[in-house]
Amino acid sequence: MNRVRLTFCVIFNYLRSLRNEMEEWRFIDNHSSDEAAINLAIEEAIFSEKILGKMPPTLRFWQSKRATVVGYSQSVEAEVNLKVCIKEGVEVARRLSGGGAVYQDLGNLNYAITIESDHYLVKGLDVPQSLRKLCLGVIITLKALGINPAFEPPGNILVNGKKVSGTAQARRKNVILHHGTLLVNANLDLLYRVLNIKNFSDTTKGVTSKKSLVTNLAEILDQQMSMKKIQESLQYGFEEAFAARLVKDSLSQTEKDSAKNLYVKKYSRREWVFLH
User: Fold this and answer.
1) φ, ψ dihedrals at 175, nearest 5°
2) pTM of the predicted model, to two decimals?
3) What residues have CB less than 8 Å from 251, skipping those under 6 apart?
4) In the chain, fewer beta carbons within 10 Å around the N or the C end?
5) 140 with 240: CB under 8 angstroms?
6) In the chain, which stretches have pLDDT less than 50?
7) How many structural domains compose the chain?
8) Which residues contact 234 (CB under 8 A, 6 or more apart)?
C-alpha cells in the first residue's frame, strides 16, 4: 500500500470513528398520510411517548396535501379564509403548539424534533433561545445549498427578507416538541388566498399571525430540486448542526395506536379545530 493511500485510509477510519461516536437520533421518514390532521396526531403520539420513556431524540419528516394549520391559541375564523378552503379543497387543522397559521401542500417539507428539555443542546434555554438553537439544522442546510439565511425571532428563517421556514414549539413536563416547515415549491398564490394575514385589529381574539412575505427554495435557487434531494440535504444539515447520527426507524405499535386514537378523538373533530 503506497503512502498516499495509507494516509487516506487513516483519515477515513478516523472520520468514521468520530461518526460512530456521535449521539444517535431516531429518524422517521413518515409519508404514510397526506392528511395534516393525521400527521399532527402522529406528532403528539411521539411527543407523549417521549415523555413516558427514554427513547433518543427523534426527528421526523412528513408532508401533507393542501392544508391550513393554525396554532393552538388561534381563531380559525380570524386566520383562515374558509370560503377559499372549501372551494379549493384545503383541509383546516389545529396543532398542539403555539405560533401562527401556516399553509402546507406537497411543495412543503415538514419536520418535527422531539427532545428532552434537559438534553445538552437545549438545557437551560427558554423557548426563544431553543427555537434559535433547533433551527440550526435548517440554517446549515440552506448554507450548504449556497444560500445565505437569516434567523428572525422568534422562529422564522428568512432569505433576502422573505420567509422560507417557520417553526413553533410545545413543551410538556420534560420534553420539547419543535416543529417547522420548509417551503420548497409550494403554491404561494393559494397560500396568500387561504390565510387572512392582512389588516389585523388589536381586538382580534387569540394570537394573530405575523404578516410575512414568503418565498420558495425553487425560486431562491432558480432551479427545481426534487423533494428527495432537499430531504437528503436537510438530514445532513441536522446531523452537522447537532453532531448526531440519524438512525432510520419507524413508528412503534404504541405510537401508531396512540396516533389513531388522537386522530379520532381530537384532531379530526370540529370541536378541536374550532377550539377558539
Assistant:
1) -130, 145
2) 0.87
3) 28, 30, 42, 45, 46, 259
4) N
5) yes
6) 4-5, 8, 11-12, 14-18, 199-206
7) 1
8) 61, 109, 111, 137, 138, 141, 182
